[in-house]
Amino acid sequence: IHYVTNKVVTEDNMFSYMYKGITGGYKAKYSFISFALKDHEYRAQEFRDIIEFRLDYNKDEIENILFHLYELKGMEKKYYFINGNCSIELVRLLDLAKEEQEYTKEIAFEAIPLDIVYLFEKKQMIKEKKVYNSKFKRFYHFLNQATQEEIAIFE
């Protein structure tokens, strides 16, 4: 499940980019993108690590989320960098499955992905965590382990 702006215009200058991001000038929607594509984009192209979390949701709760996502299929919303970003929207989606919880009430007006991780850790919702290191981090680790002779090959 992926929630992201469908188009951030690369021709926008920094002022326009920030203005649109703060005022909802970009549109976003949920989509299903294969993990392999996101993995390549994040770890190989953007040099970002991926951390996968298995959350404490049962089959019925997951099914409710999927039904809701089906209802949202193709629907676009305004994307706000601060309080309508992917982190906030993910929490709103997860709120639908657990009737006794309202995670959105427990996060600040603005949130980044790490805030959501802290919230779910506090609520003991994370059952398992798996880290996929970026290409950069793997290369950096290799260099730290390499001998001077091996490093000389790259020079």
User: By helix and strand content, what is the structural category?
Assistant: alpha+beta
Note poorly predicted spans: none
Shape: globular
Mean pLDDT: 87
For the largest beta-sheet, the strand count, sense and barrel status come to: 3 strands, antiparallel
What fraction of the residues are assigned to beta strands by DSSP?
15-25%
How many helices?
7
Radius of gyration: 19 Å
What can you tell me about this protein's structure?
It is a single chain. This protein has helices at residues 14-23, 35-45, 59-71, 86-95, 113-122, 135-145, 148-154; strands spanning 2-5, 26-31, 50-55, 77-79, 126-132. With 155 residues, it is an alpha+beta fold. The strands form two sheets. It has a three-stranded antiparallel beta sheet, covered by helices on one side. The model has no long low-confidence stretch (mean pLDDT 87). It contains seven helices and five strands, in the order βαβαβαβααβαα. Helix content is 46%, strand content 17%.
Task: Sum this structure up briefly.
The protein has 7 helices and 5 strands; from the N terminus they run E-H-E-H-E-H-E-H-H-E-H-H. It is an alpha+beta fold.
Topology:
Blueprint: E1 2-5, H1 14-23, E2 26-31, H2 35-45, E3 50-55, H3 59-71, E4 77-79, H4 86-95, H5 113-122, E5 126-132, H6 135-145, H7 148-154
Antiparallel strand pairs: 1-2, 2-4, 3-5
Fill in the keyword field for this structure.
globular, 5 strands, 7 helices, single chain, 3-stranded antiparallel sheet, alpha+beta, 155 residues
